[in-house]
Amino acid sequence: MAQVLPSLDRVRFQFPTSIAAVAAALERNALELSAPASPVLLEHNAPAIPSGWLQLSGHPKSIAPAANGSVRKRISGPSDAEVVAYRQLSVDSNACKVVPKFLGVHRLDGEYFIELQDLLHGFHDPHVMDIKIGFRTFSENEVSNTTLREDLYKKMIAIDPAAPTAEEHQQKAITKLRYMLFRENMSSSHEKGFRIEALKMRGSSPVTDMKTVKTSQEIQGTISNFVNGRKSVVKDMTKRLKQMRTLIEKSEFFQRHQVVGSSIFIVYDDHKVGVWLIDFAKALPLPEGVKVDHRKRWTLGNCEEGLLFGVDELIRTLEDVHRGLQQSSHDSKKYGRR
């Protein structure tokens, strides 16, 4: 059985193509709902980008490797929301066990960078998967404006001409909330509280445009292929996610925050499995008097985002995948004896 790691934002791989070519492809395929980081490649006082290094998802050129198994990411300043979140996560005795290690903030030539643990450090030619967690990947502030927008209507009909209602067709405009919910409903986010955002298999190019992986069958098939039939990997992933769920439920940070746009980051090689929660640019303190359980359905103003609902569903999905692999193994042995 592979070793499970107890506790990046994006990662390092060996690619057969050039960094520039893959980065361009990633940018073309990036989901609009992803919580983006700055698209500027880190250059100041960072080592040269090693051959084959590239982040898996999110906006390309947002993260670069630093020394000693860490990565640096450009931020707006020392009060950046993600910095504030990581500072609090790092001193929460439960939350710190589910996220990358926070290694500080650096100011270089007038610009600021957050330094985090490189979660790929110590893995050899790994398989990786990024799973966006929650019902929504947008903050309530982003959709509070009720202005009807013609540009978003045009985007909607470009994707699905039948999606607008008769009234919306007549107005030829929709609100940003309507558009964002439409985009979430295209994937499994709305129903299951998670969607597979991107993955990278050993020896293959990254797959980043996965918004059509929506049904239970499609999701289970994708994960089965990702683990390459390895039941022990699925078992270790499930065990780690259950541990993370318990830690999140106990964490004071998660009791006081809505956590929007975060991802479950999964990596494994021939020897070990790692699972973490990453991306906290939209981890926002709850308004006074508001409480969340991270499982209720979101309505405007209740601040629920479905973080733990998504973890619950992901665990159930992995358990289904494990049963399916066991059945396949049993059938192979059964028919192999005939």
UniProtKB/TrEMBL annotation:
EC number: 2.7.-.-
A GO CC term attached to the entry: cytoplasm
Matching SUPFAM superfamilies: SAICAR synthase-like
GO BP terms: inositol phosphate biosynthetic process; phosphatidylinositol phosphate biosynthetic process
Gene3D superfamilies: Inositol polyphosphate kinase
InterPro entries named among the record's database cross-references: IPK, IPK_sf
Gene Ontology terms for molecular function: inositol hexakisphosphate kinase activity
Pfam families: IPK
Top-level EC class: transferase
Keywords: Kinase, Transferase
Domain of life: Eukaryota
Signal peptide region: none
Family in the record: Belongs to the inositol phosphokinase (IPK) family.
Name the UniProt record assigns to this protein: Kinase
Lineage: Eukaryota, Metazoa, Ecdysozoa, Arthropoda, Hexapoda
Gene from which this protein is expressed: 5573849
